[in-house]
Amino acid sequence: MSHAATGGEPRAMRTAGVHHITALAGDPQANVDFYAGVLGLRLVKVTVNFDAPDIYHFYFGDETGKPGTAMTFFPSPGAPRGRVGGGQVGRATFAVPPGTLDFWSDRLAKFGVATAREHRFGETCLQFADPDGLPLELVARLEGPPSTWSFGGVPADKAIKGLGGAVLYSRAPEHTVDLLEHLLGLERETVSDDGRYVRLRARGHLGQVIDVCTQAVPAGASGAGTVHHIAWRAATQAEQEAWRRQVAAMGLDVTPAVDRKYFTSIYFRERGGILFEIATDGPGFTVDEPVEALGRELMLPPWLEPYRERVVANLQPFTVRVLEGDQT
After folding, report:
1. How far apart are CA 275 and CA 265, in angstroms?
2. What's the whole-number average pLDDT of the chain?
3. Cα(239)–Cα(278) distance, integer angstroms
4. Against a cut of 0.85, is the pTM above it?
5. Residue 236: which of 264, 197, 203 has the closest Cα?
6. What value does the mean pLDDT take over residues 123-128?
7. What's the mean pLDDT in 218-236?
8. Residue 162: its pLDDT value, please?
9. What are the beta bridge partners of residue 213?
């Protein structure tokens, strides 16, 4: 992308990396059992899809759900399966401490989750899928602070630190790479030996590594087991607004800032078909709950609170629980 594509402005801002990744899921209990029970993430916020309040919005992450650690879901019982393809995140990456991949391989096998190993850019990726078929991988990395959260059979010293990044499937990969590089400020590092991926890196320590498939991927279909959008970090609302102006100058449709209570968001679909969000780092998930109580109760935004009884009546109950395989 030339500088003309961003209205002639030189690149000034650089995102720290992925803020969160949001996917579609089916059964809420199965979703919680997998991400909290098997993967050991903390369910840091239980709310609803603000645009469709008959559907939960679950946020999983580290102890406080810091930006760069959050994987979020819209679970809808009976939702039809989607098809992973172009215009989507092809695989979400979690970062774990060095030396823990065998622990994770054994743990996933204990719960009947099939795994495979792929070697990419000198790293071993332990790949698997969640109950809805969403492609995931674990990568052991030094970067990123260690987890302070443990749950079930996952001790803190082996726990997922946060997002490592993502593999993107684009319908126009050159456009996607250019936007990541020249708008969001990721550094293009290298192309894989087999030519299948280009790697870019953001400036943060979590959610910072993005691999883009270099071949255009046929369009996917939205549904359970696919990613809805990937969100990038903006330090402040002023930075977010500056990005909004740059996106509009590129000729892409971009929303005004939307209040998501725990952050504000803008949304646009880049030319490779992937729905991008830019979300502010704050105010964060402790704005309406203390750290020790995160994820225990259904939290609603002020405009939905008067309808709480009606909202709850449309939601399927679930429990965060230690799975039978971890009970002694």
Report:
1. 12
2. 96
3. 10
4. yes
5. 264
6. 98
7. 98
8. 98
9. 197
pLDDT tens digits, 165-224 = 999 999 999 999 999 999 999 999 999 999 999 999 999 999 999 999 999 999 999 999
Pick from 275, 255, 251: nearest CA to 265 = 255
- What is the CB neighbour count within 10 angstroms for residue 241? 16
Q: What is the spatial distance between Cα 256 and Cα 267, in angstroms, rounded to a whole number?
A: 8
Assigned token pair, 14: 């650089």
Question: Which pLDDT score is estimated for 328?
Answer: 73
Contact between 287 and 263 under an 8 Å Cβ cutoff? The reply is no
Contact 87, 171 (CB under 8 A): yes
Look-up: residue for tokens 């992925």? 18
pLDDT over threshold 50, residue 22 = yes
pLDDT value of residue 264: 98
Task: Say if CB 185 and CB 203 are below 8 A apart.
Answer: yes
For 46-61, the pLDDT digits (tens) are 999 999 999 999 999 9
Rg of the Cα trace of the chain?
A: 19
Adjacent-strand bridge partners of 198: 191, 212
